[in-house]
UniProtKB/TrEMBL annotation:
InterPro entries: AAA+_ATPase, ABC_transporter-like_ATP-bd, ABC_transporter-like_CS, ABC_Transporter_VariousFunc, P-loop_NTPase. PROSITE patterns: ABC_TRANSPORTER_1, ABC_TRANSPORTER_2. It comes from the Bacteria. It comes from Arthrobacter terrae. Residues 9-238 form the ABC transporter domain. GO terms for molecular function: ATP binding; ATP hydrolysis activity. Gene3D superfamilies: P-loop containing nucleotide triphosphate hydrolases (3.40.50.300). This is ABC transporter ATP-binding protein.
Length: 250
């Protein structure tokens, strides 16, 4: 396999379960470098479980995960240096400022002298004005941008976002969308995004996968998807057409 064909994310025969009950069944998936991949699925389909495995937080029962061709669990420290993760709910210390929170988290993850990089990242995210404000006073959208700063501080090659626009107002949704596109365009980051918001997928993603009850029932480029389903008026209809029909999207 040469450089150009090594996927950013390679998943082979991945299975996982809790308390003896399997929730991910034999998942195979590959995401090319430079993609913005939208991972769709109803509640309980297994999206967060998959993301927790891809970010090496959870070791799978069976199967392999590789990041740019390297086994993620052979050296999870190395894998973590390649990836950034914005979980659905990030916990910050409300009585600490943006800078103090990011400094603390950066030191925890082993970055020495992180301040210059924090300043540079906040500048990139257009958030410098809130550097010395306490996170406890922030809106959900502002907290999300601090979360994004935390996720990209070490300049990862792959960014994992779990429902990044959940609970945001329309302007917050737009801000996150624009930042995701900017990180992909300017820094070449591969983005893997769990989402319920089908409208966001068509505005942001280059390829989509649909997970239904722990099985990948669809994976293709957004362009192919829109061509293949010309009569479906929305991505939601496409979602149902390809098998995500057992449950609501909320
Ligand atoms: N720590 C856990 N212990 C036991 N069961 C779990 C655990 N985490 C998830 N599950 C179960 O695994 C299944 C998949 O959950 P998961 O959170 O991965 O789905 P999801 O697609 O991310 O759903 P949502 O959109 O609601 O976040 C669900 O049936 C869930 O109840």
């Amino acid at each position: 396999m040469n450089e150009t064909t090594i996927p950013a994310i390679g998943i082979e025969r991945l299975s996982h379960g809790y308390n003896g009950k399997e929730v991910l069944h034999d998942l195979d998936l590959s995401v090319a470098a430079g993609e913005i991949f939208g991972f769709l699925g109803h509640n309980g389909a297994g999206k967060t479980t998959t993301m927790n495995i891809l970010t090496t937080l959870v070791k799978p029962v069976s199967g392999t995960v590789s990041l740019f061709g390297e086994d993620a669990f052979a050296d999870s420290g190395r894998a973590r240096s390649m990836l950034g993760y914005l979980p659905e709910n990030v916990n910050f210390y409300d009585n600490l400022t943006t800078l103090e929170n990011l400094h603390y988290l950066a030191r925890l993850s082993g970055l020495r002298d992180p301040k210059p990089r924090i300043l540079q990242t906040l500048d990139y995210l257009d958030f410098t004005a809130h550097l010395d404000e306490r996170v406890g006073s922030f809106s959900k959208g502002m907290r999300q941008r601090v979360g994004l700063a935390q996720a990209i501080l070490h300049e990862p090659k792959i960014l994992f976002l779990d429902e990044p626009t959940s609970g945001l107002d329309p302007s917050g949704v737009k801000q996150v969308r624009e930042l995701v596109l900017k990180l992909n365009r300017e820094r070449g980051m591969t983005i893997f995004m769990n989402t319920h918001l089908l409208s966001e997928v068509s505005l942001t993603c280059t390829s989509i996968g649909v997970l239904s009850a722990g099985r990948l029932v669809y994976h293709d480029s957004l362009q192919e998807t829109l061509q293949r389903f010309p009569t479906e008026n929305s991505l939601e209809e496409i979602y149902y057409a390809v098998g995500g029909s057992n449950g609501g999207m909320g």
